[in-house]
Amino acid sequence: MKIIIDAMGGDNAPLEIVRGVLNTAKARPDLQLVLVGREGEVRAAVAKCVGPLPDNVSVVNATEVIDMHDDPATAFKTKKDSSITVGLTMLKNGEGDAFVSAGSTGALLSAGTLVVKRIRGIRRAAMAPVLPTAGGQMVLIDCGANAECTVEYLLQFAYLGSFYASKALNLDSPRVGLLNIGAEDSKGDQLRRDAYQALKAAGEAGRLNFVGNVEAKEAIKGGCDVLVADGFSGNVMLKTIEGMGSFLGKEIKGMFLKSLKTKAAALLVKKGLDGFKARLDPDAIGGTPFLGLQKPVVKAHGSSGAKALENAIYQAERAVKADVASQIAANIELMKIDN
């Protein structure tokens, strides 16, 4: 398997991106990794880390960089030799199996949509991170790609998330919920009420395992395996979970460092605390796949360090193996609102 990585995307590029790739290359010699970016800067970063490139890592030169000041909708066109444009073009041409970038979300979505292209019949690609819950894990779709949605978008997100959860999380019949302010079918705005009816119809037809409206607090408790949301609501929920995880981690650490007794107690529960911290660590998630594109594209955090980038590569590998695109294409007729 060959994964293409944007070496110039994100706050810590290229050094931390390169470090993450080299760590992955060492741990997984079976993966072929391609770094796309300004070759001189990439090779200088490699030299700081290990010296010569490992056999399973190569570099492709791309002279331009899309930064946060560029217009995300057009930057990939005006900067045709950017790392994002070059990398996605390679993916489109079959020179890799997936693409990973910590760069601009908007530019990556626009370029992914117009270069790699959506699966025919899919209205919008959606971001679908896998989040920890009390019941295990949950796919949140969408979490930021589409702030404004229609009923058809939400219906398609439900199918996309269900197919991904069944493959990536090994679930036979993922429970699909609609993020809302209450469990009753009368709750929410008109979009949520109409989407509920469309999802309910799909559930009654046996196409989805729809469990109804799910409040954010119930989703975190494990109330569903796939949580469907518009990109605005989903992003607010995602950022809240990340912020709360960071807050709880700091509070618990402070509590155990108050005295010698609490420090001694911390040693006794260290293993459990480490496990708790790992579950809430956004770097452990690594990246978020864009579902609905013809080939896997994974967005890593803009602040990604080596660990996060490494896990984003593993997310890309998971997406390739899941091969959700073929399942989506085979079932596209089920995703139309007139069904």
Helix percentage: 40-55%
| End-to-end gap | 37 Å
What percent of residues are in strands? 15-25%
Q: C-alpha Rg, in Å?
A: 21 Å
Largest sheet: 7 strands, mixed
Q: Number of DSSP helices?
A: 14
Sequence-ordered SSE layout with sheet pairings:
Elements: E1 2-6, H1 15-27, E2 32-37, H2 39-49, E3 57-61, H3 75-78, H4 83-92, E4 98-101, H5 105-117, E5 126-127, E6 130-133, E7 136-141, H6 151-168, E8 175-179, H7 190-204, E9 209-214, H8 216-220, E10 226-228, H9 231-256, H10 260-268, H11 270-280, H12 282-285, E11 287-291, E12 297-300, H13 306-322, H14 324-330
Helix pairs in contact: 1-2, 1-13, 4-5, 6-7
What would the keywords be for this entry?
16% strand, five-stranded mixed beta sheet, alpha/beta, Isopropylmalate Dehydrogenase, 2 domains, single chain, 339 residues, seven-stranded mixed beta sheet
Written overview of the protein:
With about 350 residues, this protein is of the alpha/beta class. The protein has two domains: about 1-120 and about 290-325, Isopropylmalate Dehydrogenase (3-Layer(aba) Sandwich); about 125-285, Isopropylmalate Dehydrogenase (3-Layer(aba) Sandwich). Helix content is about 50%, strand content about 15%. It has 14 helices and twelve strands. The strands form two sheets. Strands 3-2-1-4-12-11-5 form a seven-stranded mixed sheet, sandwiched between helices. Strand 11 (about 285-290) and strand 12 form a beta hairpin. Helix 1 packs across helix 2 (about 40-50), helix 1 (about 15-25) crosses helix 13 and helix 4 (about 85-90) packs parallel to helix 5. The protein is globular.
